[in-house]
Design a protein that fits this description.
Layout lengths: L4 E13 L2 E13 L4 E5 L6 H9 L6 E6 L2 E2 L5 H7 L3 E4 L13 H11 L5 H14 L16 H13 L5 E5 L7 H18 L2 E6 L2 H7 L2 E6 L2 E7 H6 L4 H9 L5 H17 L1
Parallel strand pairs: 3-8, 3-9, 6-7, 7-8
Antiparallel strand pairs: 1-2, 1-4, 4-5, 9-10
Length: 274
């Protein structure tokens, strides 16, 4: 079966002035199957968010292709991109800035339904109520404003907005990095549950290898615009082969400080032995 999403030899250059060019992506390729979660992990500047923006049509790649369900969408028109918005959605890093503070949550969640052609007011209200309950929020959330909720609650609402039309692919760009560790676990569990129940495909972008392990079936490790390691998420996390992947694992936060120190000492020992 063909993958739902295929990223093929993506290259991205940014002009830096004085004739200099920065190569942000250097031939990145990976697939996402239907109903699969793939983690894309790397530190800041690795190019992972750039890949997400290219998939979403927010940036135009210098070279390469993005194929969605057999269709090359690399150069999709604005009209086609609007239609693809029903199939491909995004959850952003900032749960505060991603929600309009002047609109009620109900209006925010109704917007993608209206854009998809739903006009019946009763149906809209029912679907808004259903998705709020599905993400663990009370129905009367629809009557309130974003400023009345915590960061974790706002991210639940942002996830509700992304999945209310049951898209086939959701790009999650650092969706828990702005949250406390305890809240992160709750949001990750929610994403896992929605992925299974709605049969979503997820591209989960993060700098944290341990977080990616929690939600992903496969992991792709990106370093300075190139893939240095990819494979089964558990294997990449538990037995990383590339020194950069090992460094990412050592940098991942561990709740217990002694365990964190032991992990870092183990990584340093591996580096010395190499």
């Amino acid at each position: 079966m063909n993958p739902l999403l295929s990223v093929q030899d993506l290259r991205m250059d940014f002009a830096q002035g004085r004739g200099k060019v920065a190569q942000v992506l250097k031939g990145v390729s990976f697939d996402i199957a239907r109903g699969e979660t793939v983690g894309l992990v790397g530190e800041s500047g690795s190019g992972k968010t750039t890949i997400g923006k290219i998939i979403l049509g927010q940036l135009q790649a210098t070279a390469g292709r993005v194929v969605f369900d057999g269709e090359d969408i690399t150069h999709a028109t604005r009209q086609r991109r609007r239609l693809l918005g029903r199939e491909i959605q995004v959850v952003f890093q900032d749960p505060i800035g991603s929600l309009n503070p002047s609109r009620t949550i109900g209006d925010t969640l109704a917007e993608p339904l209206i854009a998809a052609g739903v006009r019946d007011g009763n149906e809209i209200r029912q679907r808004v109520a259903d998705i709020l309950q599905r993400v663990g929020m009370p129905v009367d959330t629809a009557l309130r404003y974003p400023t009345q909720f915590s960061g974790g609650q706002r991210q639940r609402i942002a996830i509700a907005r992304a999945v209310i039309n049951r898209p086939r692919l959701v790009v999650c760009d650092e969706p828990v990095s702005a949250l406390d560790l305890s809240v992160q676990a709750q949001v990750l569990n929610l994403l896992n549950e929605l992925q299974r129940s709605l049969q979503l495909s997820l591209l989960f972008i993060s700098h944290d290898l341990t977080v990616v392990r929690h939600v992903s079936r496969r992991t792709v490790v990106l370093y300075r615009g190139e893939i240095v390691e990819q494979g089964d998420a558990a294997q990449v996390h538990d037995a990383p082969r590339d020194p950069y992947t090992q460094a990412l694992l050592a940098a991942s936060p561990v709740p217990h400080p002694v365990l964190q120190r032991q992990r870092r000492e183990q990584w340093r020992a591996q580096r010395t032995a190499a």
